[in-house]
Design brief:
Strand order of the largest sheet: 1-2-3-5-4-6-7-8-10-9
Distance between the termini: 25 Å
Number of helices: 8
Largest sheet: 10 strands, mixed
Helix content: 10-25%
């Protein structure tokens, strides 16, 4: 997998002009991305699906400086003790637990699609959302079992790319990490309407998840989100008001500006993100006074999750290091991984970013 990973780096230069603007401030409107224009309405569109020709694409990542890998600290798998588990098949969301109180290691909560034969296979689909036909890709487990509630990953691409690029990278290299542990999951990878993610992509998430809930068997308490660069930014945006639907999220080189943000609920959500301390595209700190930058995502999530806020978050300008915030809600671990590199989702050999991402996700 690593040979394939690094062979893809040869294609990095083709996206350099796109990536370079993904977090650049748009001074006229700090909540709009640099190239996406105004967003659509947030009202949820009607849900329908129709299969189209399946496609494939090669993965592309931005260039990175190779650093020596060090062992990161894993999340605490012990978690906290939970209350009584909900009964019934459940639906989207927490399936009966009080919001934010799903215990670590809880029994799966089955989606409405469990126990039903599905027509979904591994291919590209279209869905009507906010009055548009939108494209997304579904990757189904081999020998899919309609009675097994799988994990579901919602994976968002970077600026100027499409779902094919995410699929070409094996969904940010999470799929081979899972398979090495004998696990399978359902992966969903939407395509943006143009280069960037916008306000209406919150409705797209809702519409896709409503369709998935009715048509496939997944664990509604183990829906995860991840993405790189602008994909990390929409992941962050979704995490600010979809805490009941998304159990945990990993932002890879995200920023908290130049992306549409809803009114934040500040409800807890398990969170991790990565930032290269030499990243000039989505930097650790863009503007201290305006609280722009990945540092302020970490501080916001730590506060929302009840963590103790240190005077200074430990960071690394060399080999990567992951900091786990202390005293967080047991159900909402919060961590940030920094390293002496730039704007990338591939760093080191082996690539530690998917290794640490899967370590974070699998604890739930």
């Amino acid at each position: 997998m690593q040979d394939q990973t690094f062979s893809r780096l040869a294609f990095c230069v083709t996206l350099a002009s796109w990536v370079a603007i993904s977090c650049t401030p748009a001074e006229s409107d700090s909540n709009n991305d640099g190239g996406g224009g105004g967003g659509g309405a947030t009202a949820t569109g009607s849900v329908s699906s129709a299969s189209v020709s399946s496609a494939s694409g090669s993965g592309v990542a931005t260039s990175s400086s190779s650093v020596t890998t060090v062992a990161g600290t894993g999340g605490d798998n012990s978690g906290g003790s939970g209350g009584a588990e909900p009964t019934g098949t459940g639906g989207a969301g927490t399936g009966g637990w009080p919001e934010g109180a799903i215990p670590m290691g809880n029994a799966p909560v089955r989606s409405a699609g469990c126990g039903k034969a599905t027509t979904l296979t591994t291919k590209e689909y279209t869905i009507s959302s906010s009055g548009q036909n939108r494209v997304y890709y579904v990757d189904m487990p081999r020998n899919y079992d309609m009675n097994k509630p799988y994990r579901l990953f919602y994976t968002s691409h970077w600026i100027g790319s499409r779902w094919q690029d995410v699929e070409g990278q094996d969904f940010y290299f999470l799929k081979p990490q899972m398979e090495a542990d004998g696990e399978q999951a359902i992966f969903v990878a939407p395509s943006s309407d143009g280069a960037t993610w916008q306000e209406k992509d919150h409705a797209l998430f809702d519409d896709i998840m409503a369709l998935m809930n009715e048509n496939v068997c997944y664990d509604t308490t183990r829906v995860f989100a991840t993405g790189f660069s602008f994909g990390g930014m929409i992941t962050y945006s979704l995490s600010t008001n979809h805490q009941a639907e998304i159990r945990a999220a990993v932002g890879i080189a995200p920023a908290n500006y130049n992306i549409w943000l809803p009114e934040k609920t500040h409800k807890p959500i398990a969170w991790m993100h990565t930032t290269g301390m030499s990243d000039g595209t989505c930097p650790w700190v863009n503007n201290e006074g305006q609280k722009r930058g990945a540092k302020f995502i970490a501080l916001e999530k730590a506060e929302d999750n009840g963590c103790t806020i240190p005077d200074n978050i430990p960071t690394s300008n060399g080999a990567y290091s992951c900091y786990d915030f202390k005293d967080c809600d047991p159900e909402h671990p919060t961590r940030v991984c920094t390293f002496g590199g730039g704007h990338t989702n591939i760093d080191g050999n082996p690539n530690w970013i998917p290794i640490e991402s899967w370590k974070f996700f699998k604890q739930f």
